[in-house]
Write a structure and sequence with these properties.
CATH topology of one domain: TIM Barrel
Shape: globular
Number of helices: 13
Distance between the termini: 54 Å
Radius of gyration: 24 Å
CATH architecture of one domain: Alpha-Beta Barrel
Bound molecules: pyridoxal-5'-phosphate
Oligomer: single chain
CATH class of one domain: Alpha Beta
Number of strands: 20
Helix content: 25-40%
Length: 463
């Protein structure tokens, strides 16, 4: 599997004895949420925003992890919310986020969803032409005067690098063809802005961007934001903006993404895979300070700065405790099969690498190269093909999968196995905050009274 493992020497700082003890009370696999880690991340980002020269807000990206125990806690920290669907909007309101501190993003918003947002005074960042017409009409019907909206702008340049030129070409093409927002400086964006300006019930007061996820290149992120900030400065002169929202995407150190293209795949086939790129790490506080400064230079005085952290807030606040269910010695591979599969850890098979740490007993100092898979009878359920683990890991052992707070619970599913429980630990306290799914849960949406087969349907074995 490409991409270097997160540095095993970097201590993730979890109490593994405690996690092993939880495994005595909860069936594996299960997620653990450490609320102290979540609180620390929330305070860090809010602290960094508080240092800036302008009013600044964080909207937590609810899609990153919608666990109510977690969203309620972030709302209590005074954070806002970024939602990208109607049901997320309802969940954010239920979690206690102030409606005026919720933004509604995303490439599709139905009329019902837009009406819900308007009813609650939730600001919409426009990302589809039809939204202008629908919002203007709904605002007119509601008789609420003008409604403030934002518009999503894309920079058109990639935010990741690689020593593999084929990856870089792919990334550049993908950035230019990005379907979220409209490119800064493009005639299409100008047309959309005109459309909003000509809508009697709408007023453009915000610019929104969100570049991608797990961005680790600070300089590149700043450079990619430049066209967005430039466009924002222009729009500010014309309309008087209230907010520039740079979105999320702030990368975390515990995850490695493969940044390789077809060329690396070819090299790999020849047995000479190129060295994995060094992954820098993103200093979010510094990045926010740099954006603040750049906004100053561009004349965006008095305009608030907002961001939408998702992964950065929740990634290392959760881990998955899984058990080795089977090991298999083959002529060319040594497999460990754990009970956390793609249905609870949906990045398996994508090459994204998370730290795996065997826990619950003392392990031999000698290391070995293992292939690690999940339990699903499905080709891509692979955590890694060359994972460095102790030589003596065996069936029955527990393994802690790190940095699982982002895009695991909400993206988990019941393909082959059911979804896992979440246990929250808060100091000495422990609470089951999401129960494990059962087979009955899976089928509760089905027709409860299926028609019986007509008699004589199966002729039985031939005589
Ligand atoms: C997903 C998303 C985020 C959060 O992204 P992270 O990479 O988890 O920080 C923020 N804003 C928008 C609009 C998103 O779609």
């Amino acid at each position: 599997m490409s991409g270097a493992l997160p540095d095993p020497a970097a201590e993730p700082g979890w109490d593994y004895d405690r996690l092993a003890e939880l495994a005595g009370r909860h069936a594996t696999p299960f997620h653990v949420l450490d609320t102290a880690r979540l609180d620390r991340a929330a305070r860090d980002v809010l602290g960094a925003l508080g240092e800036l020269s302008r009013p600044a807000t964080a909207y937590y990206s609810v899609k990153t992890n919608y666990l109510p125990h977690l969203t309620r806690r972030l709302a209590r920290h005074g954070m806002g919310a970024d939602v990208v669907s109607g049901y997320e909007l309802e969940a954010a309101l239920a979690a206690g986020f102030e409606p005026e501190r919720i933004v509604f993003n995303g490439p599709v918003k139905t009329e019902e969803e837009l009406a819900l947002a308007l009813r609650h005074g939730v600001r919409v960042n426009i990302d589809g032409e039809h939204e202008i017409e629908v919002l203007d009409r709904l605002a007119a019907e509601a008789g609420q005067g003008t409604v403030e909206v934002g518009i999503r702008i894309s920079p058109g340049v990639p935010v990741s690098t690689s020593t593999d030129p084929s990856y870089r070409l792919q990334a550049e093409l993908a950035a230019r063809r990005n379907r979220f927002g409209w490119p800064a400086g493009s005639p299409q964006l100008a047309r959309l802005v005109r459309g909003i300006a000509e809508s009697p019930h709408l007023r453009l007061t915000a610019v929104h961007a969100h570049l991608s996820s797990q961005i680790v290149h600070q300089e590149l992120m700043l450079r990619a934001l430049e066209p967005v900030l430039g466009e924002a400065a222009e729009l500010h002169r014309r309309f008087g903006l209230r907010e520039v929202n740079i979105g999320g995407g702030f990368g975390v150190p515990g995850i490695r993404r493969p940044r390789t293209g077809p060329l690396s795949a070819l090299w790999g086939l020849h047995g000479s895979a190129p060295a994995a790129d060094e992954e820098p790490s993103l200093d979010t506080a510094q990045l926010l300070a740099d954006v603040d400064k750049r906004m100053q230079d561009l004349g965006l005085d008095g305009v608030a700065l907002a961001c939408e952290p998702g992964r950065w807030l929740v990634s290392d606040a959760m881990a998955i405790v899984t058990r080795v269910m089977s090991s298999k010695e083959l002529p060319e591979a040594r497999w460990l099969i754990v009970d956390a599969g793609n249905n609870v850890a949906p990045w398996t098979g994508s090459g994204e690498v998370h730290r795996l740490v065997p826990i619950g007993r003392a392990f031999a100092p000698d290391r070995s190269t293992w292939s690690v898979a999940g339990p699903l009878c499905y080709e891509n359920d692979i955590h890694g093909q060359a994972v460095d683990l102790p030589e003596d890991v065996r069936t029955g052992d527990l393994v802690c999968l790190h940095d699982t707070g982002a895009y695991s619970l909400g993206r988990s599913n019941n393909f082959i196995r059911t979804r896992a429980a979440v246990v929250a630990v808060d100091g000495e306290q422990e609470q089951l905050v999401w129960r494990a799914e059962t087979g009955q849960d899976v089928f509760r949406l089905a027709d409860p009274d299926p028609d019986p087969l007509p008699p004589g349907g199966n002729p039985g074995p031939a005589e």
